[in-house]
Amino acid sequence: FNEDPFTQKRLRAGDETPVPRSLSARAQLYERVFPQYRQPVEVGVFSLDSERAFFNDSRQLRYYVDPGNKPNFNLRDGYRDRFIKRDDGVKERLDHLLRWIVANRAKLRSTHASSSPCTLGVDFVTWRGHLTKLLTTPYETQEGWLLAVSKFGGTLYVSEVETEVARVNRENRTERHEEMMYWGYKFEQYICADDANGVPDRGGVVNTNEAFCTVVQTRLAEHKLLFSGEVDCRDKDPRAPPAPACYVELKTSAEICTPKQRSNFHRYKLLKWWAQSFLPGVPRVVAGFRDHDGVVVSVETFHISKISQLIKNEYNCWKPTVCMNFCSDFLSFVKSVVKEDNPRLVYLFAWEPHRDVTYTVHRDSQYTFLPDWYIKEMAI
Ligand code: A3P
Ligand code: MG
Ligand code: MG
Q1: Mutational test site, ligand 1, from 181, 228, 286, 300, max ligand atoms within 8 Å of CB
Q2: Computed from CA positions of residues 266, 272, 278, 284, in that sequence, does the dihedral angle turn out positive or negative?
Q3: What is the value of ipTM here, to two decimals?
Q4: Exposure of 252 by Cβ count < 10 A (0-12 exposed, 13-18 middle, 19+ buried)?
Q5: Cα 228 to ligand 3 centroid, rounded to whole Å
Q6: How do residues 71-128 score in pLDDT, each as one tens digit?
Q7: Does pTM surpass 0.90?
Q8: Where does residue 346 fall: left (phi above 0), alpha (psi -120 to 50 degrees), or beta otherwise?
Q9: Backbone angles phi, psi at 241, to 5 degrees
Q10: 10 phi and psi, to 5 degrees?
């Protein structure tokens, strides 16, 4: 394939540089050598408490307690009476991460020797979850996405906007779906202790406002990235390697009974699990396989570095190199489009399955997402 993924180039007025209008997401276009991805370095952490209040520390970090191979956890326990659900209608955008940046900018700047006060020394600031969506885009056939981008102090900030389809789905979830979303958090409670020497409290309240987040810095090809992602727990051994290598991602999935189910697990689930943990350098996923009634019947550890081997026998399967090359080319696309440094100006990048990535431009609109407090703080 020699086809250029950047199509329909046009010229900006008074500028000889061609500005691409769209980017293809066809997987075949990205089957080339794996791009450089520097080992992610943790530059900080933060916590969100039971009321979703921000703390510039690790108070919500939990510790992994090995559940054994056949734990018989009942994930339905507590759904009615011991569950406090975060209001997912509240759009937090990049706010928590921006608060972390404001609280830690001296630390960030010292490592970059930047001149201007707004300058962070990175090309992109975003959530890990947004990058996960980019990585899986060449293989996604169900859900599109919208990503808002503003340039401020030379850095491109990327913040997701909920699509109309996603909003309608969120507002019309079935009771079964609502309950099944709880199961993943209940699994975490069965496995995690609040202290390195503690035990899990399976009788406690599950509160999905609580979160512990790592902030990492890395580089994908020529793009310097600063992003944050929620971390489920860490290895309790004090001799474990430093973060992010000591972190453990927890997942639940339906038990696998047939070859077709195994194939689907490899094709769809492992792609999402790999992308989410590979990005911040989290080395392993501990998965609980549950039956139809929400009982965990087995637990298995997946090492992120071994997942590409696991899927190699799957016909026409996803490839890590396609995910990373698409992400890198999308970030290049964003850089070539977003030239004006202005936090009130938003470029809205849109993608739908079987379509190219396109964008629209919005000045002082509902899409503006960098808050005034952040712009004021960074100008000092
Ligand atoms: P599972 O991972 O076991 O499915 P995470 O795994 O990223 O730490 O997320 C913890 C749980 O949050 C998930 O458990 C799932 O129940 C819920 N969750 C995560 N992402 C979600 C999404 N996009 N939509 C609905 N629920 C989600
Ligand atoms: Mg999590
Ligand atoms: Mg998890």
Answers
A1: 181
A2: negative
A3: 0.96
A4: buried
A5: 15
A6: 999 999 999 999 999 999 999 999 999 999 999 998 886 555 555 655 899 999 999 9
A7: yes
A8: beta
A9: -60, 160
A10: -135, 165
